[in-house]
Design brief:
CATH superfamily of the largest domain: Putative cyclase
GO biological process, one term: L-tryptophan catabolic process to kynurenine
Number of domains: 2
Shape: globular
Strand content: 15-25%
Radius of gyration: 21 Å
Protein name: Cyclase family protein
Number of helices: 11
Largest sheet: 9 strands, mixed
Helix content: 25-40%
CATH class of the largest domain: Alpha Beta
InterPro entries: KFase/CYL (IPR007325), KFase_sf (IPR037175)
Organism: Arthrobacter caoxuetaonis
Number of strands: 15
Order of helices and strands: HHHEEHEEHEEEHEHEHEHEHEHEEE
Strand order of the largest sheet: 1-15-13-7-9-11-12-4-14
Structural class: alpha/beta
GO molecular function, one term: arylformamidase activity
Distance between the termini: 24 Å
CATH architecture of the largest domain: 3-Layer(bba) Sandwich
CATH topology of the largest domain: Glucose Oxidase, domain 1
Length: 337
């Protein structure tokens, strides 16, 4: 476990100078070249066959939990950056079948449908082509040489299609810290910055099954999604939220996790911790660390189970759709305990 001081976090965040903070953090915590100049997987390289065998041995009861939010027109999106909620349309229905309008023989009928949606409108992975740092994509490639109008030509999400089967660990920071912050619901307030100290305190409180190891995917529960289930979406998509502090970049690097997902729209704390900024932790995590980020996951049923039985690790499968050249993908993560 990486121990980080509060002073280290303060140094990382120069509130009046975001660029200097990003430059310093990227220089100090960077994985470029770690897996060779042609690498397209980033931290997914930490998941190997032995890791998957380790993860499979965690299955005891066979219980499964979907960690996905619904994909429907009642989702959180408001159109910002042209992100809309899914539009589901039927092209063949039972009515068509009853009236014999489908042209099939001997009474057989059917239903067909399609869906139109941005790839990052609900539970999803950010791929390695999603964010750039000062014109650079993952592994030091120039952004324009990676993602063109034809999509991500190098690190498209299809490269991860068979990779993300590993040990998952739930860090229920909402339940661990919520009572100390006056929340009886086990939720963090919007704008709360989760530091490495908070992560370590959560692990200590939850016990040995939540120790973080190389190749894990961390599922971090803030409780914000649970709050939307009671109160409605509000500004969930793009508004204020609890999330990871910029100062956690060293922890994300040194822990050697394969990925991390949260129950919030943007993974990191919002508003961001600088006078002028937009998602600076993304700017470190994706293009510099090569770290897969999951957003808008739904850990509620899993978290209730973990709180009951004290087992916070599980087999996790979270395969993106192999959409050639995409920089993100919808996902239905499954935790098996």
């Amino acid at each position: 476990m990486t121990q980080l001081s509060d002073q280290a976090g303060e140094v990382a965040i120069q509130r009046g100078n975001t660029l200097a903070s990003v430059e310093a953090m990227a220089a100090a915590h960077n994985n470029w070249g770690r897996w060779g100049p042609d690498d397209v997987l980033g931290t997914l390289n930490f998941i190997d066959e032995a890791k998957r065998v380790e993860a499979a041995q965690l299955v005891r009861s066979g219980q499964t939990f979907s960690l996905s939010q619904p994909f429907n027109t009642d989702g959180p999106q408001k159109g910002w950056r042209r992100r809309t909620n899914p539009v589901h349309t039927m092209t063949d229905t039972g009515t068509d079948a009853e009236f014999g309008d489908q042209g099939f023989p001997h009474g057989i009928g059917g239903a067909d449908d399609f869906i139109a949606m941005p790839l990052q409108c609900s539970t999803q992975w950010d791929g390695l082509g999603h964010i750039f740092d000062r014109g650079n994509a993952w592994n030091g490639r120039r952004a324009g040489q990676v993602v063109t109008s034809d999509g991500d030509q190098v690190t498209g999400i299809q490269t991860a299609a068979a990779r993300i089967v590993t040990r998952g660990v739930l860090l229920d920071v909402g339940r661990a810290l919520g009572p100390e912050l006056g929340s009886d619901e086990g939720e963090l307030p919007d704008g709360f910055a989760i530091t490495a100290k908070h992560i370590e305190a959560t692990i200590k409180k939850q016990g040995a099954s939540s120790d973080i190891r190389r190749g894990d995917v961390v599922v971090l529960r803030t409780g914000q999604y649970a709050r939307t289930l009671r109160q409605g979406w509000g500004d969930y998509a793009g508004g204020s939220a609890p999330g990871l502090s910029f100062s956690t970049a060293p922890w994300l690097h040194m822990s050697e996790i394969a990925g991390i997902a949260t129950d919030t729209w943007g993974f990191e704390v919002r508003p961001n911790e600088f006078d002028v900024a937009f998602q600076p932790l993304h700017q470190i995590a994706i293009p510099n660390l090569g770290l897969y980020l999951g957003e808008m996951w739904n850990p509620e049923e899993l978290a209730a189970s973990c709180a009951t039985d004290g087992q916070y690790d599980f087999l996790l499968t979270a395969a993106p759709l192999p959409i050639t050249g995409a920089v993100g993908s919808p996902v239905n993560p499954i935790a098996v305990k």
